[in-house]
Amino acid sequence: MHFLWSLFAPRQKYRSFAKLDPQGRCQAFKHCKVPPMGDGWVEIEEIRLNWLHQPLPASARVSPRITRARVQPMMAT
Question: Which domain of life is it from (predicted)?
Fold first, then answer.
């Protein structure tokens, strides 16, 4: 029964990351569910092997996700 429930449960999607050196050149790629630990990792739209050891194009980066606080309606007093 657990197997059937797991088929319909929402799954966390894999995200792509690139490790950049201080000059902004791509040194490594990683495809994982959570951001990698350490400095130099940036989230990218997709992995392209021709970016390896090259400067990462600005269009490759994912825009940071903006989290907003939930707006609650004001209560009339």
Answer: Bacteria
User: Beta partners for 15?
Assistant: 32
Q: What is the 3-state secondary structure (H, E, C) of 4-59?
A: HHHHHCCCCCCEEEEEECCCCEEEEEEEECCCCCCCCEEEECCCCHHHECCECCHH
Q: What are the tokens at 6?
A: 């797991």
Per-domain residue ranges for the chain? 11-50
* Per-block mean pLDDT, blocks of 10 residues, the chain (77 long): 76 91 95 93 95 93 68 62
Contact 15, 26 (CB under 8 A): no
